[in-house]
Design goal:
Blueprint: H1 3-30, H2 37-57, H3 64-69, E1 71-75, H4 83-93, H5 96-103, H6 117-121, E2 124-128
Antiparallel strand pairs: 1-2
Helix pairs in contact: 1-2, 2-4
């Protein structure tokens, strides 16, 4: 695994922990209004995770995890990432990209870890921020 990929993995883990904590807080707020456990166990955490990532990435190409790891997501043409792009990228990462990893692990990382399949599909790359 490339050093950049390791940093990306750590950033995603940090973001997952933060999203989980936020999800617990939101769950407490809506628990009295929504009685369905499926909503609390699956829907709320999933929606919050994607919404937080899209919002943060659209505000400078960094989530909290990316900031802590010194990383930045940008479009290949160096334009800022939009919330829609970040959301599409995240959905692809968590669905189709997983299949690609299992099929071809040796070629999953491109450009020394700066481009993974979900980045390539949306013409983005991750770089270390100076």
């Amino acid at each position: 695994m490339n050093p950049l990929t390791k940093k990306r993995t750590k950033a995603v883990l940090i973001d997952s922990i933060i999203a989980g904590l936020v999800s617990v807080g939101v769950e407490q707020l809506v628990r009295k209004k929504v009685k369905n456990e499926f909503v609390h166990a699956v829907i709320t955490p999933t929606l919050l995770t994607y919404a937080m990532e899209a919002w943060q990435m659209s505000r400078g190409g960094q989530t909290i995890g990316y900031k802590l790891m010194g990383l930045e997501l940008t479009n290949d043409d160096e334009t800022p990432v939009t919330a829609k792009q970040a959301l599409q990228r995240a959905l692809h990462r968590d669905t189709s990209s997983v299949v690609r990893y299992w099929k071809d692990r040796a070629h999953f990382e491109q450009e020394d870890g700066a481009v993974l399949p979900h980045d390539a599909r949306y013409h983005m790359h991750v770089r270390e921020k100076n």
